[in-house]
Amino acid sequence: MSTLGIALIGAGKMGTDHARRIGRTVGGARVAAVADPDGDRAKEVTAGLDGASAHTDAAAAIAAPGVQAVLIASPGPAHEEAIGLALERGLPVLCEKPMTPDTAGALRVMEAEQRLGRRLVQVGFMRRYDAEYEELKGLLDAGGIGRPLFLHCRHRNAVSLPFFTSDSLINDSLVHEVDATRWLLGEEIAAVSVFSPPPTSAAPPELHDPRFVLMETSGGVLVDVEVFVNCGFGYEVRCEAVGESGSASIGEPRAMTVRRAGARSGAIPQDFTVRFADAYDRQLRRWVAAAARGGVAGPGAWDGYAAAAVCEAGIAAGRSGVRTPVELVERPALYR
Ligand code: ISE
Known about the structure:
Elements: E1 4-9, H1 13-24, E2 29-35, H2 39-46, E3 53-55, H3 58-62, E4 69-72, H4 79-88, E5 93-96, H5 103-116, E6 121-124, H6 131-141, E7 148-156, H7 166-185, E8 189-195, E9 211-217, E10 222-228, E11 236-243, E12 246-250, E13 258-260, E14 263-265, H8 272-275, H9 277-292, H10 301-320, E15 324-325
Parallel strand pairs: 1-2, 1-4, 2-3, 4-5, 5-6, 7-10
Antiparallel strand pairs: 7-11, 8-9, 8-15, 9-10, 11-12, 13-14
Helix pairs in contact: 4-5, 5-10, 6-7, 7-10
The structure holds (2R,3S,4s,5R,6S)-2,3,4,5,6-pentahydroxycyclohexanone (ISE).
């Protein structure tokens, strides 16, 4: 079987996790090159990988021999440049979210793809590959709880990463609920409001954490999200959909329950790479299969753009305290 040569851009937490996944749980692919501004990190990831080269520069990794597809796991502001380099070479891309941290960059990505005339960018909205999310989507699509009225969401991290700011809480964390809402309901998000209780003492000074976000969809569904990235106790992503004839919840504790010494307990995962491990595997498997045929199959640049527009409105709403409408450009034909 031929193996797809992948250039991995970014050797941080997510990049390292993807490198481990390629070859171990995802077949048909190999890491051909790794780039990270910290060359030692790039070398650490390539150590033990047969024939993989290490670089400090994305362009060099993407141009390395044997590269047929590009997996981008660098910080959001570096995504646009790496996507551009991949598109110049006509290579399929899987780019971690957010595709770009702003709509201007997202529009440029869509323009580049439209110039090529085909879709080569997939965005790493991995919740679409999670078994529980897929089940909820199936139920909603089948009308199993009637017309949806509300989504009640909780997005909690045990502790935020060191570089996290109030903008990251929207662009890196809330962005998942933004995409999940659009995908689950098949509607765009029309307006965002952001409420801020007094921050937890566990958060660093520049981070407003937690936040309560209210999104209104084009069809009038109300979606509330608690985003709390320093909750301390673990990683928790929950969603309850309420419809005219029922409700459905996902993300409830799945661990073994232990009853002992007058108490009932069960472990809570501490991290998203654990909670969504299967979803990451499935996402990568399907992307590798599509990339081997020269294309992509999952959420694309339009989804990345629409999410960026909602996050941009969310950041503005967080600063002003005012309900902020989301403005979208007309959906180009390539994404219909
Ligand atoms: C992280 O980048 C993710 O994508 C996780 O899913 C999210 O829960 C976390 O808040 C982000 O920092």
